Amino acid sequence: MNISFTEEQKLLQEAFRAFVKESVAPNAAKWDEEDCCPTDLFPTMGDLGILGIFVPEKYGGVGLGHVERVMALEEIARHSAGLAMFVFTHQLGMAAILDFGSEEQKMKYLPGMCSGETICGLAVTEPGGGSDVAGQKTAAVLENGMWNVKGRKCFITNSHIADVTVMTAKTGEDDKGRATFSAIILEKGTPGFAPGRKEHKMGLRGSVTGDLVMDNALIPEGNILGTVGQGNAIAMKEIGEVGRASMTAICVGILRGCVEESVKFANDRILYGKPISKLQAIQFHIAENRVDYEAARALLYIAAAKKDQGIPTTVDFGMAKFFAVEAAVRAAKRTIELMGGYGVMNEYAAGRFLRDAMASISSGGTSEIQKIIIAGDTIKAYS
What we know:
The chain is an alpha+beta fold. The chain has helices at about 5-25, 30-35, 40-45, 65-75, 80-100, 105-115, 230-270, 280-310, 315-340, 350-360, 365-380; strands at about 120-125, 140-145, 145-155, 165-175, 180-185, 195-200, 210-220, 225, 270, 275. It is built from 11 helices and 10 strands.
């Protein structure tokens, strides 16, 4: 499949790159050091069309696709993987509303999310586990037209800044006595709801991560997303495609950073009277970084193009995320080795690349989860 960009996509890429050069690159180290989330950039990203790039125009979006969406995330993550994490989680909640919301819900929520006036999130993970979605303890009981929700979500990106969060909760049992879960739209200011603990992460530090605590939170019955009992299916679809696509894009951005920074350093660093880029050992590191970047990029954009064509892509993005995150860790370590003592100094980005890559491993499912998905499909397809 051809992964070259159209002229329109190239113009978009130039616009994204100009925004990043002006507003992201000069501030990325500061956001990382201070562990702060630049929410003030959201309206600007809304004006540029980044936030709602995949949302139809009737809901305030640009009406393009996921190729353009991951392109924007790659450009942002080249300098700030944390900011890209903030944006993608916002889009993850938006995608759930777009794919499963009623017309009324789409019209109510999506325009403000596309413009950047409203910040969104998605909350599934709980203290008892992330990948074990059937083990969620948060429960919602319908009482007098209101869902009474009690429970706690953890490791939730945008936890303390989201105006709207799509969350999952147990709402009943099936005919075999197994728990069923629903997706519920939770708004900031809901009685009985408040953010809890705020985490301090090793990487992805341009984003906010923490707990959501529901202590008899009262949510209108009409805030169900999709149908009752559909919650885990909604969450798994969006995480499996939009979430893993986004994490792959973030890792591709990190990989491009490793390529560019290793080349720049190798050309600038003089040893024995010549740039170290002339040394074969250094060239090996640069070559391996380039191969990892190009391979991860190909997996990402091929899968994104398939999604835009309506082809199921859970396995494609599982392969892309597995390869890209492992490659990003490898490349960041190589870049640090190439730089020697300079590589562990915070004035250089290599250390941040490694921390961001390591922090990306668990988001959207660990590498082991991706391998289970890939192996299951492979055994079925090749048997």
